Amino acid sequence: MTNATVEDAAQGANIDVPEHMAWDSRARRTITIYIPLSIFIVVLLFPFYWMAITSVKPDYEMYDYKKYNPFWVGSPTLDNIKKLLFDTDYPQWLITTMGIATAATFLSVFASVLAAYAIERLRFKGAQHVGLAIYLAYLVPPTILFIPLATMIFQFGLFDSPLALILTYPTTLVPFCTWLLIGYFKSIPYELEECALIDGASRLQILRRITLPLAVPGLISAGIFAFTLSWNEFIYALAFIQSTEKKTVPVAILTELVTGDVFQWGSLMAGSLLGSVPVAIIYSFFVEYYVSSMTGAVKE
Amino acid sequence: MANVSIRNVRKRFGSTEILHGVDVEIDDGEFVILVGPSGCGKSTLLRMIAGLENISSGEIAIGDRVVNNIAPKERDIAMVFQNYALYPHMTVRDNMAFSLSLTNASKAEIDEKVGRAAQILGLNPYLARYPRQLSGGQRQRVAMGRAIVRDPQVFLFDEPLSNLDAKLRVAMRAEIKELHQRLQTTTVYVTHDQIEAMTMADKIVVMNAGNVEQIGAPLDLYDKPNNLFVAGFIGSPAMNFVKGKVADGAFTAEDGTILPLPPSAAGQDGRPAVYGIRPEHFRLAGDGLPARITVLEPTGSETQVMAHFAGTPIIGAFRERIAAKPGETIRVSVDPMAAHVFDGATGQRIGA
Ligand SMILES: Nc1ncnc2c1ncn2[C@@H]1O[C@H](COP(=O)(O)OP(=O)(O)OP(=O)(O)O)[C@@H](O)[C@H]1O
Ligand SMILES: [Mg+2]
Prior knowledge:
The structure holds two protein chains of two kinds. Chain A is mainly α. Chain A has helices at 2-14, 23-55, 59-62, 79-87, 90-122, 127-139, 142-155, 162-168, 170-186, 190-199, 203-214, 216-232, 235-240, 249-256, 265-295; strands at 258-259, 262-263. Chain A folds into two domains: 3-77, no CATH class; 80-299, MetI-like (MetI-like fold, Orthogonal Bundle), CATH 1.10.3720.10. Chain A contains 15 helices and two strands. A two-stranded antiparallel ribbon of chain A has the order 1-2. The two termini of chain B are 35 Å apart. In chain B, the strands form four sheets. In chain B, strands 6-7-8-3-9-10 form a six-stranded mixed beta sheet, with helices on both faces. In chain B, strands 13-12-11-14-19 form a five-stranded antiparallel beta sheet. Chain B has eight helices and 19 strands. In chain B, α2 (92-102) packs across α3 (107-121) and α2 (92-102) runs parallel beside α4. Chain B is an alpha+beta fold. The longest helix of chain B has 18 residues, at 166-183. Bound molecules: adenosine-5'-triphosphate (ATP) and magnesium ion. The site of magnesium ion has 3 residues of chain B, from α1.
């Protein structure tokens, strides 16, 4: 995921290099752009590399740095991965996490679209204060929220059910997505909506046929953001889910693959690596939208 | 089609009043232009007709229906915005079909209406394109097409030509006028360009600082401006003004120059006044009054002369070629029938 963004930035920096660039300025570019970027990439990608090689290392290589190069694998093995996939509930965890993240994302984005549109375009009395209040809600740390939330979860009888997570994640996701979408809606010329209003569209029709199609990059970044956070969320997932088979990936690999004092590093790393694959795939599909929504408004 | 009545309409944004009681009657099928300097409230008035701004007090009626509390979509109007407001994610065809697709129009009906509008505006080759693939003039036409397909009671235009270059503006001006002649739909058109107003309008409404200064046919405004503001606003180059007072059946400028009064303005002795004369109403005359030339601008068809006359800088436009050079003096006369006299205190026209 991160590598995609970094590569994109590197390409962006490349665009306006003319062919006949003088040597000295090429050297300067190397120093000011490529070297820092390379360092950046190495630093960012090293954890992934470490994760990748650890997950295929046999145990004897893992603990003996004297005899084996820690940065390389002598005799790669699929044992760790096999153990992860067949001796634990890992596939089940993946499916659960996927389901929870997807549901929480749709719920949050849906609510955020309505909230952001109302705040930015309907301009009801006090809209600005509501916008501010929503943003402040985002600043409340989950560690504080989770005590009252836990009470509610128990009272609704949702403990140890995926619904507990699907309904609590939006408490942090909705404020951020709303805030992000308000900014995005703001960049869509209001004239377009006025024009649609005269053309005879109702507010909902405007939202569906004018605003949302133009806000697709914003929706995608909100979606990616929500999905990633739900995927990686730890505290609520740890607190509200008890049964092994219902756990989400980040919690499960930590609670199920650390047995007592023993860290099963190979499987742990394989689990983390496989766990980041879906997010990476989603990012790589939408990275262009993501970047464009961060950098620019609607193009006419 | 319908007439539009604007009766004593006021607009307040918060505590500031932007429109101070505007009255305009627009007849069925008329092409009316709201013109005035920037910030005078033209767009605001237009948006109130469209229903995009609410009406603080007064009444707007379209046909015989008061629309104060009627939503824009119920008003049966179409509006062309200054920046066209084309939907960027829709093709030209979809842009034009959008309003119809919101009604229960059948596909055949939509195709027929869009096709007819595209035909009128010459948009057929572009129907499948997106707005970003069009030139400014083409976008302008799509915006008009979108208005036409709705076949509304009233067209509203807010400075539709201001984003185009000068040449295209002239071409589109003719096109809009032709379109109006063809469709005969009541049209309210906002511009701050008085040439646009003069050339296109059946009726011009001159606005200034939230008030209507004068309403009339273009040439009426030109020939008989009600006050100094209209006199100065309509016409290019603008009317020349000389300050002074009326005395002994003539006009005496502040520097003592005596100018002939139009008969209708006589009998107002002693009153401070402003004498107005359009550039083309100066005549070269051997026995005339002296005008010292500062700049000469021959354009071929006529010569514009900037000069010092009766203690004031003026501009004259002459059909004749002028041999004199800057610094020299020519003699000009003024036809009293073509002169205008305004009250020095109120700026209102004196005499008919
Ligand atoms: N939403 C608003 N809130 C407060 N004041 C406004 C608002 N909209 C317009 N105004 C004020 O109303 C006045 C008239 O604005 P309007 O847009 O009607 O001017 P205009 O005649 O169309 O000018 P231009 O030729 O520059 O378009 C201006 O002084 C403007 O500052
Ligand atoms: Mg305006």
